[in-house]
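Margin note: ligand = DLL.
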Amino acid sequence: MQVAGATTGRFEGSVTPGFFDKAVETMPRTDLEQLQVARLADTVERIRHNVPAMQQRLRDVATPASLDDLQRLPFTKKTALRDNYPFGLFAVPRSEVMRVHASSGTTGKPTVVGYTAEDLRMWAECVARCLRGAGIEPGWMLHNAYGYGLFTGGLGLHAGAEAAGISVVPVSGGNTERQLMLIEDFVPEAICCTPSYALTLAEHLPPSNSLRVGVLGAEPWSERMRVEIEERLSMVAVNIYGLSEVIGPGVACETADRQGLVVMEDHFLPEIVHPETGERLPDGEVGVLVLTSLTKQAFPIIRYWTGDLCSMTKEPSPCGRTHARISAIVGRADDMIVIRGVNVYPSQVEHTLLGTAGAAPHFRLVVTREGNLDDMTVQIEPDENYGTSGDDLADLQRRVGEGLRSSLGIGVRIEVAGRGTLPRSEGGKLSRVDDRRQL
Ligand code: DLL
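Resulting structure:
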């Protein structure tokens, strides 16, 4: 498959891809596809019987008898989660949901997902495959700098490491000084965090550090960034992908040979479709990644429209894995942006402005990267009836800042622009995002 820059500047680390469950990871494709069809049929039936909110949509759909039948099923978009907030799409009684996680919704409320005990076990198994494939050996130590909490990164990687017999340092995000001290003192062989945070750490760590493997994801990153991270930290850096709606991290991950992200296809069925027509695209073409869960119990999901753009191949991997591989995510089909690992939709900003007295609903988001850290400035305008004294504007700036901190979960800079100065739509699609990062 085409892997951008695959032959340039890769760090020659002495790690090799391992397996967590070799029989499943190298299963012949015909057996894999048979398993997928049976699991797909079961998933559709469970949703039909247990999720009242979906019954109408599935009423006239026959139980799929082949993978091609999948195309007759409707897509599920993020709006379905919002419309059924918080637990309306769960397929088991609330008492069987052992954990919930959440990520940014498109407006005020987060997107909530749930897991049974069996879902948590399956998720840990998927992440364990990712970590072993990345070359991390049982008995090594993993510094886990993904955030613990409602975000799936921290706890997801944590459980996967434990399942694979890898020791975890559950450091979570933030406090870089302390992270550096722990890396120096505990000498972990592996790290997981966002790629931008890996670059921040690289500014302070010598190349002679103990790290050999980094499992990096939750935000888009380029081949150029990989070369920089690998060189500066002298470790192999693999790309891990996932999203809370489907499970969290571990839907797909590169192995140590970095030849595309292997999808855990016995649990998640991938399709690549045309962003406008929704038609399935042939292997190798870039389109929207659509994922169907095959074994999830608490929150099964059919044809989830991820909005992430990539391509796919079903050629076996050099390391012997037979599951499909996707390319790195090359963009978004919608206007979601990822700032310091946090998903931000312009519609969330609009929602907050509409609820803030004195703010006009016009805005622009300017995204920059200073050093390795993303920064976002939200340019706003006062509405026609709002005062224009320095105090008035400072008060508006403060209130919008507080509102956005609470709705987005990250601090952003607010600039109050003159009335009528921000771009207005002139009929066409108005881009409210000015992303100046060089990813
Ligand atoms: O970001 C799960 C995760 C945690 C993945 C830790 C990897 C590591 P959400 O918060 O629901 O879940 O955000 C999912 O983030 O639809 C992509 O747009 C983006 N994303 C995640 N991983 C990658 C990646 C977690 N490797 C959304 N490359 C997804 C590009 C990524 N984008």
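DSSP finds eleven helices and 21 strands in the chain.
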